[in-house]
Amino acid sequence: MSRRAWVLGAAVALLAAAAAVIGVKRPAGTAPAAASAAAKAASAPAMLLAAGDVARADRAELGTLLQLSGGLRAVDSAMVKAKVAAEVRQLNVREGDRVQAGQLLGRLDATEVQLRLRQAQDNVAAAQAQVDTAQRSFENNRALVGQGFISRNALDTSANTLAGAQASLQAARAAADLAKKAVADTEIRAPIGGLVAQRLVQPGERIAIDGRLVEIVDLGRIELEAAVAPEDVLHLRVGQAARVFIDGLPEPVAARVARINPSAVTGTRSVLAYLALAPTEGLRQGLFARATVQMQSRTALVVPASAVRDDQARPYVLAVEGGLAVARTVKLGARGEVLLAGQRENAVEVLEGLAPGTVVLRGTVGALRAGTRVQLPAPAASANATR
């Protein structure tokens, strides 16, 4: 063998040995890295959960909720209108003023109606004079008939004249009563007690009959007027409990279904329902409100609504199994309210995916990844957390 061939053979052998060494060293370096990552995950500290972070899937009376919205309105309200056409002389109240039933709010100009009253009174006096004359004539004619000086027909004529005069007197008196009432109607009085919601005219303006002057509302009784869809109104009943949420109020207001309109609204086909609110400070007519009406209830397996997560294709919950947060896909049913530990809470029915008693994490824990080690609170705290 020549020297050149020997050198080439040695070089090939060296390259083969180097490749073998490299091939062996690569997996040897990867295995320790993977083992190190697994050991690091296993040794990571567990997340300590608070009592309010956990709940149990449990059976409870689930009340199906009907969501409604609408405006608040006073049960008792009145729009004060002008009963005579006249100029506004005085109006002594403004928005926000409290008034009593029968209180004098202002006056309309009574000049024209007082002139009509005087004219009507003069007509009464004239009609009374005609009745007196006709009465005397009738009595005289009756005496003359008895003496045979006049015919019976003449007496009948005088009787008819007296009857006509008496009818004219009654009509004149009725006209005088109307004129007297018109004078009284120039006084603007409150028909109900409450607060002035609108002042619609100013002194000096001329107002027509039935022209709006002042609106008064009684905030002692407030109700929510809400439109109900046709498919929902079939399940709505008078007396059902409800909660009304109003912006600005820290807590919902208790309410109940007071009335349901028997007719649908033209065009929308919705039906108006009226929810009577419990007396509460801060309620005002016209405020927008949302309400939840508790419909029929039934026993169901439920979890808190905040425990259901929807950042994946299908809804799921994080269940605690073996000290780890495990994602469990669930099939959901109705939503509603449950009463646990003396408090109401929004909950959702679980049809598939969880067994009763499974510990789940509420949304208060935040965006926790599946597989995270978790540590449950003390047993007593965990029991309280099922509410």
Q: How would you describe this protein?
A:
The chain has 387 residues and is an alpha+beta fold. Among the domains are: 1-43; 111-184, Helix Hairpins, CATH 1.10.287. Helices cover 31% and strands 39% of the residues. The protein has helices at residues 3-42, 111-147, 152-184, 230-233, 379-384; strands spanning 47-48, 54-56, 58-81, 86-91, 98-99, 104-108, 187-189, 194-199, 206-207, 212-228, 241-246, 253-264, 271-277, 288-304, 316-321, 324-329, 331-340, 343-352, 359-361, 374-375. The strands form 5 sheets. Strands 3, 5, 8, 10, 11, 12, 13, 14, 17 and 18 form a 10-stranded antiparallel β-sheet that branches. Helix 2 runs antiparallel to helix 3 (152-184). The chain is elongated and about 135 Å long. The chain starts with a helix and ends with a helix.
The fraction of residues in strands falls at 35-45%
Structural class: alpha+beta
The fold-level CATH name of the domain at 111-184 is Helix Hairpins
Q: Alpha-carbon distance between the termini?
A: 91 Å
Give me some keywords for this one:
387 residues, alpha+beta, Helix Hairpins, ten-stranded antiparallel sheet, four-stranded antiparallel sheet, disordered C terminus
